[in-house]
């Protein structure tokens, strides 16, 4: 029997439906043949995306009376129409198209988005959605199989949630490979990715409605923020991230982790507290302690490193004790903060850069120094090649990123005779060298993590009042 020959679907004045592509597996809908277009209760309605392909995102409370359960949805905008409600009020509404499932029937329907707060049904099914195969029996309800709201209290709501279009901010002041890749990969997945100059952000700090402003306007609510904070603006950049955290935005890397990783002394204290292998390190303030400082990390050669050093700059190899004392004296004369570190000879000018995303090493490369330099940084002419890392190295990299609470980190390791030693944990690692040398889509893995983190989570059931 063809679809045309099959009997019509019998509907009561109230039925259970699903809108799977919006992440709404169970909705109780009022069937109203007096209304032409279907309507969905939506709040926080906001448009985003390019003018030639505009999208709308909105929040749905699928269970009437349960404002604690919110499902964030997004869809392509089909139209914007003037709609008159049953009580005579007229408003402009965004129109979307999405598949509806009822019983074994699945069909695309048009839905207008509006605030139906106070209505008993958060979904109204109009006659356009019914088509020719559905007939309504006004005095009956639930003629088709009934669903329930229990699905929102289980892990299934997360597993079946669609990869909706997201609005993502990249905090960056540079138009480099990493920033361009973040935009390119995000937009290829259907997301809207906006690059925001960190120092152009300014903040409204108050208890009730904290906001981040930019170029004279309040920034919208982003689904996620990807920080690419340069070392020179760490204090201000982390203040901006803290403001996003206050608002409740998911930040790939948090302000506390970035702050700790940027301060070399603080970073090594975090590593030591978490019993993560690193070269012997010492720090002192008084010139009288120079000899003792050198003695704590062993004999020369040794490394003298500025606390704010980046990309290998401000890192000096002292071949002899006398050379170490001279370097330390020079740094003290500049009133610079520095630490002294054991030099791992067996590393032979090579280190391992592990890219950790979401608690997993997604790519690893070996960086080798050029021209006899002990520093293997790619910015200083180092050479990158793919490398297979050991289980111990993998676990060390993951533990180091976790110690700082970083969802994305570049962890630099040295291969020593006593096992892997962490040199540095970078909260804004570059992607070009790692992706080129390893052939891995690191940015794609980052978006996998973001999409997984912003999906709806199950909410607890409310206990029945006794």
Q: What's the overall average pLDDT, rounded?
A: 86
CATH superfamily grouping of the domain at 9-159: Acid Proteases
The secondary structure category is alpha+beta
CATH arch. level architecture of the domain at 9-159: Beta Barrel
CATH class of the domain at 9-159: Mainly Beta
Termini Cα gap: 53 Å
Radius of gyration: 29 Å
Q: Give the number of helices.
A: 11
Major β-sheet, in short? 7 strands, mixed
Give the overall silhouette: elongated
Share of β-strand residues: 25-35%
Strand order of the largest sheet: 2-3-11-4-10-9-8
CATH topology of the domain at 9-159: Cathepsin D, subunit A, domain 1
Structural features:
466 residues; alpha+beta; Cathepsin D, subunit A, domain 1; Rossmann fold; Dna Ligase, domain 1
Structure report:
The chain is an alpha+beta fold and 466 residues long. Among the domains are: 9-159, Beta Barrel (Cathepsin D, subunit A, domain 1), CATH 2.40.70.10; 167-260, 3-Layer(aba) Sandwich (Rossmann fold); 280-343, ATP-grasp fold, A domain (Dna Ligase, domain 1, 2-Layer Sandwich), CATH 3.30.1490. The chain contains eleven helices and 28 strands. Strand 8 (79-84) and strand 9 (90-102) form a beta hairpin. Helix 4 (234-247) runs antiparallel to helix 5 (255-262). The protein starts with 8 loop residues before the first strand and ends in a 13-residue tail after the last helix.
